[in-house]
Amino acid sequence: MLIKEYRLVLPFTLEEFQRGQLWSVAEASKNETGGGNGVVIVKQHEFRSKSIRPGHTIEGVYTYKIYYLAQKVPYVFRKLFPETAFILHEESWNAFPYTKTVLTNPDYMKGNFKIVVETIHCEDRGEQSNALNLPKDVLKKREVVFIDIADDSNLKKGDFNDENNIHQFTSEKTGRGPLNEGWARKHKPVITAYKCVSVNFKWFGLQNRVEKAIHKTYPRLFAKFHRECFCWIDQWYALSMEEIRSIEEETQAKLKQAIDQGECKGMAEEGSDNKKSSSSDEEEK
């Protein structure tokens, strides 16, 4: 098992990001779904639990999704593995500011593949040594990685467009932006997302290589999503939580309709059939 804790300083208050994150997840899901690939929301309901985060009673919204990713991976992998290898099941417990997400592949890897992402959002600049109160055995294995959402090196060439240009964007509703080198040291407001990602891939001879490869995707995934969340701020900033929940319900229905329509959309790896991404990427996160 390979464990890394990613820390992202973000230009929001906690209350703002709670709404912005939900809106942006819905928007990003639509942007990544089509051509037989993307996400389908199977279940979504309120929950209360004493076991999800040991030592805490948490409540919020539980979501169960299925990701179809075959056309987003390199062709060589699709020749080696069946399509079921690229179907991921995601369970998420959102008890903001704490969230927990578990990814599995029950149709192919069964109990031999699991990714757990634990996140806590705090009003600081990433200085806490153990914001998630990780146990000692996890701390010994954990590597801390800081991700600057304004650092373009985290992204692939095909990830950039006029709508997510964080270096030029200025919010009309908040006056925030643009974000450039050193922004996180002086920007107000800020919060930090502490994300502990544990990757477990049990396959003799491939475990270390695959776990490292999976972790290489996270700086891009996290940077791209949070950059877009900021650049979309004027679209979600004035929305209430009730309006956000209504948008989530509408998105759930739209995703079911869109999954098999059009071409594969969104992020893809080098050598995939995702024309939108691979045609403009030099090497494809």
TrEMBL record:
Native source organism of the sequence: Panagrellus redivivus
Region ranges (Disordered): 258-285
Protein name, UniProt field: Phosphatidylinositol transfer protein
Top-level taxon of origin: Eukaryota
InterPro entries in the cross-refs: PI_transfer (IPR001666), PI_transfer_N (IPR055261), START-like_dom_sf (IPR023393)
GO cellular component, one term: cell periphery
Ranges of biased composition (kind: Basic and acidic residues): 262-279
Molecular functions per Gene Ontology: phosphatidylcholine binding; phosphatidylcholine transporter activity; phosphatidylinositol binding; phosphatidylinositol transfer activity
SUPFAM superfamilies xref list: Bet v1-like
Phosphatidylinositol transfer protein N-terminal domain: residues covered: 1-252
Origin organism lineage: Eukaryota, Metazoa, Ecdysozoa, Nematoda, Chromadorea
